[in-house]
Specification:
The chain is of the alpha+beta class. The protein is built from eleven helices and eleven strands. The longest helix is centred in the last third of the chain and has 30 residues. It is elongated, with a radius of gyration of 24 Å.
Length: 367
C-alpha cells in the first residue's frame, strides 16, 4: 500500500508539473486559463483567483488545465482556438518541455551527488567522472521458500562471489546458478558492513522457478563536478528521450504480436521491455531498498517517458492535438469540434486498451 501511495504521489507530481507548463505558457501568450485542477473530478472544492478556478478533485491522478476555447471553435479574444499555430505549438509542447526540464534537474542533482549507472549508452564517454563506485551485484528480491531465503539472504544484500569467483552482474549469477543447478554452492555475501560465506543447495534443473530464488541487478554510481554535471545531465535526458521514443514506436509495431501473445504462455520481447501500472509498482518496490538516489532516478525516467509519449502525434495527447492543428493549417480546413472530440476520444480509448494489454503482461511477469 505504501508503494502505491508513493507512486501516486510521484506520478501526480510529474503530471501537475506537465500541466503547469501548459498553464504558464498559455497565460504568457494571452490565452485564458479557465481552470487548473488538482486531481480529476468529481470536484471537492474550488476557488477563483485572478480569473482562474483552482479546483481540488477526488481522484489523485495528477491534474489538468482547461483553456478557453480548447474544445470549441471559440474565436473570441483569449481563446485557444483563435490563437496562431505557433502559439498553439508552444502551449501544447510546454508540458513536454516541463517534464524534460524536471528530468534534467533531477539528473543534474544526481550527477553531482552520485548518479546510479544506467549503462554505457547513457554515459557520455567524452566526460570523466570524478568518482566511480565499483560495480556490485545487489539482491532486489528474495523469493519466499527459496534456497536463498533458507540460507538467510535478504533484499539489499550484495553477492560478491560464487564458489570463490568474483561476480558483478546478474547474467553471471544466472549462468552460474543454472550450471550448478541441484548442487551445493558457496556464496560470499555482504549484509550491511558484514561479509560472510554462505553454503546452500540450489534447486534442481527441473525447477520451474529460479535455482537460487532471487532477483538481482548490477549497481554502481558515477559522480561529476558541477560543470560537467550539466553536460552529463543533458546527455542522459536526451539519450533516454530518444530511447523511449524508439521503444514506444517498437511497441506499436509489435502490437499484433502482443495481441496474439495473449493466447500463448510466453511473454513477447516487446512486452518484456515495457511496463504498465502493475510493473511500475513492482519496479519501485524492487529499487526502494537501494536508496533515494534510485527512487529519484526512477522518477526522472518516468518524467522522460511522459515527455516522449506526449510528444508523439497520437490522438488525445499533446502531440496529437498539435498534429490536428498542423493538418488544419496545411489543408486549410477546420475540423468540426465534434469530429475532433471523437478523434481524440477514440485515441484515448485505444491508449487505455494498450495500457490494459501491457498490464496483463505485467501480471504474467510478476505473479
Amino acid at each position: 500500500m505504501l508503494t502505491i501511495i508513493v507512486i501516486l504521489f510521484l506520478f501526480s507530481s510529474l503530471v501537475l508539473l506537465h500541466e503547469y507548463g501548459h498553464f504558464v505558457v498559455a497565460r504568457r501568450n494571452g490565452v485564458d486559463v479557465e481552470e487548473f485542477g488538482f486531481g480529476f473530478p468529481p470536484k471537492l472544492y474550488g476557488r477563483k483567483y485572478k480569473g482562474v478556478l483552482y479546483s481540488f478533485n477526488l481522484l489523485p491522478l495528477g491534474g489538468f488545465v482547461r483553456l478557453k476555447g480548447e474544445d470549441a471553435n471559440d474565436m473570441s479574444k483569449g481563446s485557444f482556438a483563435a490563437s496562431s499555430l505557433s502559439v498553439k505549438a508552444k502551449i501544447l509542447l510546454a508540458g513536454v518541455g516541463m517534464n524534460l526540464l524536471t528530468a534534467f534537474v533531477i539528473f543534474y542533482a544526481l550527477c553531482v551527488t552520485g548518479i546510479p549507472g544506467l549503462g554505457k549508452q547513457f554515459e557520455p564517454s567524452f566526460l570523466k567522472p570524478t568518482y566511480a563506485q565499483n560495480k556490485q551485484l545487489i539482491l532486489s528480491e528474495v523469493e519466499k521458500n527459496s534456497p536463498a531465503e533458507g540460507a538467510g539472504l535478504k533484499r539489499g544484500d550484495y553477492v560478491l562471489a560464487f564458489n570463490g569467483a568474483t561476480i558483478a552482474t546478474d547474467v553471471q549469477l544466472h549462468d552460474l546458478t543454472k550450471a550448478n543447478a541441484g548442487k551445493e554452492v558457496a556464496l560470499t555475501v555482504r549484509h550491511g558492513d558484514n561479509i560472510k560465506d554462505i553454503k546452500l543447495t540450489l534447486r534442481p534443473a527441473s525447477a520451474k522457478s529460479g535455482f537460487l530464488g532471487v532477483v538481482s541487478q548490477q549497481v554502481y554510481k558515477l559522480r561529476y563536478d558541477p560543470l560537467q554535471a550539466v553536460v552529463a545531465a543533458a546527455y542522459v535526458t536526451l539519450a533516454l528521450l530518444l530511447a523511449t521514443i524508439v521503444g514506444v514506436l517498437q511497441l506499436f509495431i509489435a502490437l499484433p504480436a502482443l495481441i496474439i501473445g495473449l493466447f500463448s504462455p510466453s511473454v513477447p520481447a516487446a512486452a518484456a521491455a515495457a511496463s504498465g501500472p502493475v510493473g511500475i509498482v513492482f519496479i519501485l518496490k524492487s529499487i526502494s531498498s537501494l536508496g533515494w538516489a534510485y527512487v529519484l532516478l526512477f522518477m526522472a525516467n518516468i518524467s522522460v517517458a511522459l515527455a516522449a509519449f506526449n510528444a508523439l502525434p497520437l490522438p488525445a495527447l499533446d502531440g496529437g492535438r498539435l498534429f490536428v492543428s498542423v493538418m488544419q493549417r496545411v489543408t486549410k480546413r477546420n475540423w468540426k469540434p465534434e469530429t475532433e472530440a471523437k478523434y481524440h476520444a477514440i485515441g484515448f480509448i485505444a491508449l487505455i486498451g494498450l495500457m490494459i494489454l501491457i498490464s496483463v503482461y505485467d501480471v504474467r511477469k510478476y505473479f
